[in-house]
Amino acid sequence: MNILPLSNSIGALVENIDLSTITEGDFHFLYAAFLQHKVLFLRDQSMTPAEHLALGKRFGSLEPVHPFFPHVEDNDQVIIIETSLGNPPGESFWHTDMTWKDVPPKCSILHAQYVPEEGGDTIWCNMAAVWKSLPEDEKAYLRTLKVSHELHAFKGSRYDKEESGGQSYADKVAQQYEPIVRSMVQVHPETQEEVLYINEQYVHSVIGLSPLESDALLSRLFAKAREEQFQIRFSWQANSVAIWDNRITQHYAVTDYGDAARRLHRVTVSG
């Protein structure tokens, strides 16, 4: 197994390994690389949904059914992210998966089934590196702040629909999840790195600040995370795999391919 770092900040390409038959010893090295590089990329990985699930279980217990995304026929823990003719992707936002949950996921494993000839890249950002770049006086201030994570981004999306009585399905689901207030700065439970734990899609506001102050602070920090020095961009091919640490990264799907056919399967590991 070869592990080739792709930048100084985040990302590595893993070669000469078959994820469907990975040994315990090789998984040990893969996991160490996962912690070090935050997101791993592999090419030419032919995995069935069952093998995809088995790999996810090596990382931990799996997330239950996602409230919005569809799933493969035989297992509701393998979700489908798909576009097709007449069904283009919706608006994309930088996000860390499911931070509206009390305990967000640990990691995700995304497996490309088929992708457009051009476009459809995904970008990941190292939020520990973003944090390290901030001046010490600002870090001291940010450590005192809390933010509200809320499930509001699916409202009006292609995954929303009108329920009986005219209620939005997204609103109905959101009522099941109270806003989660957590510190803006988190500590990674395994590497002990401090992480600026915010994202554009699910962070609603900074507790204790006025709406204008909150928006201004978050906008400035979000802009910092969009600097290329903290990022890695991956171009998908059929049977490519990305494995990312959801506790220390956020990511962005580039929706520049119209309604060209694109399908990926995702397995998500619980926090």
TrEMBL record:
<dbReference type="InterPro" id="IPR051323">
    <property type="entry name" value="AtsK-like"/>
</dbReference>
<keyword id="KW-0408">Iron</keyword>
<protein>
    <submittedName>
        <fullName>TauD/TfdA family dioxygenase</fullName>
    </submittedName>
</protein>
<comment type="similarity">
    <text>Belongs to the TfdA dioxygenase family.</text>
</comment>
<dbReference type="Pfam" id="PF02668">
    <property type="entry name" value="TauD"/>
</dbReference>
<keyword id="KW-0479">Metal-binding</keyword>
<dbReference type="InterPro" id="IPR042098">
    <property type="entry name" value="TauD-like_sf"/>
</dbReference>
<dbReference type="InterPro" id="IPR003819">
    <property type="entry name" value="TauD/TfdA-like"/>
</dbReference>
<dbReference type="GO" id="GO:0051213">
    <property type="term" value="F:dioxygenase activity"/>
</dbReference>
<keyword id="KW-0560">Oxidoreductase</keyword>
<keyword id="KW-0223">Dioxygenase</keyword>
<feature type="domain" description="TauD/TfdA-like">
    <location>
        <begin position="3"/>
        <end position="268"/>
    </location>
</feature>
